[in-house]
Amino acid sequence: MERGMTADQLLASLWRRKALVGAITAAVFAVGAAIVMTRPSMYEASAVVRVEPQRPGEEMVQRTVSELIEQRLLTVRQELMARPVLQKAIEEMNLYPDIVSEKGMETAVAQMRKDLQVRVEGETAFEITYTNRDPQVAAQVANRLPTIFSEETLKLRQAQAARATDLFTEEMGSMGKAVSNWERKISQFKVDHLGELPEQMEMNMRGLERVSHELQTKSEELRVAEARRSDLARARNAVDSEAGRLESAESGLTRALVNARTTWTEDHPEIKRMQTELDGMTTRRKEAEGRLWAERAERGRVASLIEVIQKDIVDLQGKAEAYQARLNNTPKWAHELGVMNRDYEIARTKYQSVVSRKVEAEIAQELEAKSSKSLFNVISPAGVPVTAARPDRMTGLVIALLVALGLGILTGAVLEMRDDSLRDGSEVRQRLTLPVLAVVPDMQGKTERRVLMPSQGGRNNVSSPTSLN
Predict the structure, then answer these.
(1) d(Cα 360, Cα 165) in Å, to the nearest integer?
(2) How far is CA 407 from the centre of its chain?
(3) I need a labelling partner for 287 at 20 to 30 A (CA). Which of 267, 333, 392, 427 fits?
(4) Which residues cross the membrane (predicted)?
(5) Is-contact 276 286, C-beta < 8 A?
(6) Is residue 3 part of a domain?
(7) Which domain holds residue 341?
(8) What does the pLDDT look like over 395-427, one tens digit per residue?
(9) Could you give the CA distance from residue 69 to residue 54 in angstroms, rounded to a whole number?
């Protein structure tokens, strides 16, 4: 049966069971002390790394790695705890060989995460603390991890810069093809509509004016030629009459001369006169016939000239119609060519922008490679620890002692609460309903003598007890 106790009762009960409480306390303390003293000593080594800003490079050229290096401090713990960094450190420094051989690399990486602490210090620095049983290994790992992290970070940034350069290179290739396609389309369009392009409008207008002027000139030449042909036609009739008349007159003189010769001799004056007249007539006839042939040739030349002029007029009219058709089609082709030129200019502008960005990306990639050595600076390298960081043996012994005392006291209290023995008169009065007549004290090996002294009135009184040895 359990019952409550006061502090005095608890102390009394512990005193009655001091041997048991002491044994439990000693046993528990011995176990705790053994645990504390047998735990291996763990040494901690810390290194402080500062991240150097890269502002000069950003002022010279726009970087393709958009994330500032100091912004990586926000995730530096996750990145340092990542498998690539830890696995490289484990493989390089041969850490946790037993765990790697028995349970694999993943378990070794998990164990290293437990032994590693990363704290951000300020805005541009972080601290790496590594714990190991060997102080030399702890210092080596703490000094090597920043270098591995720097190498992995730089590889990542350089890979990002290289990807940006490759992306711009691919984009430049595709944009270059688009620009070339538009150039070919525009060139073919200009070939297909040669003479009807907007830049040729002024030339066509000048050509039309020139052809119109030539048409006027040819029309005037045709009018003159037509008039000349009319004059020659009228002259031909007159010339034909004169040549006919001279020929008829010559024929009559010839017959008269023949008849006269039958009558007179050649020396006759009449014969000579008629002969002279016939010679003159013949000369005039030949001259008239010559003029007739010249006029016929002139008429032929004039007719040919008229045909040539008419043909030239037809050709000039065709040219004028062609120039006019070109001028009529120019606005339509100007619109289509304007749309093509607009798209071509857009594509060319994009291409030029991509080319400039590619050049900047290449420069940024070179800057990333050149500035890689100055991104991370170990301002406080880890030294070899002299004293173990844990366990704190003194604190552990104190805790073990306190736990042992607590268990001892708790054991004594529990046993006392479950003990139903009656130890004094107060307990008897509390737990029993019967009246208490007397209480016999615990002599604890001693004897008492009570002296009966006579009292007044014939009664005996009990005197105070006297202890006897």
Answers:
(1) 9
(2) 66
(3) 267
(4) 394-415
(5) no
(6) no
(7) 198-354
(8) 877 887 888 888 877 777 777 666 666 566 666
(9) 8
Mean pLDDT (whole number) for 237-261: 67
How confident is residue 45, by pLDDT bands cut at 50, 70 and 90? confident
State the sign of the Cα–Cα–Cα–Cα dihedral 421, 422, 424, 429. positive
Quote the CA–CA distance of 259 and 416 in Å, as a whole number.
Answer: 204
| Alpha-carbon distances of 315 from 204, 223, 329, rounded to whole Å | 16, 17, 21
Residue 171 lies in a domain: no
Tokens of 411: 């054991």
Q: Report helix, strand or coil for 43.
A: strand
pTM, to two decimals: 0.45
- DSSP classification of residue 70: G
Decide if 299 is inside a domain.
Answer: yes
Q: What is the CA radius of gyration of the chain?
A: 68
SS (H, E, C) 373-441: HHCEEEEECCCCCCCCCECCHHHHHHHHHHHHHHHHHHHHHHHHHCCCCCCCHHHHHHHCCCCCCCCCC
Alpha helices in 43-134 (DSSP H): 55-60, 76-80, 83-93, 97-103, 105-115
Give the Cα separation of 111 and 100 in Å (integer).
10
Residue 250 within a domain: yes
CA distances to 160, 361, 425 from 171, in Å: 16, 13, 103
Is 37 in contact with 129 (CB distance < 8 Å)? Answer: no
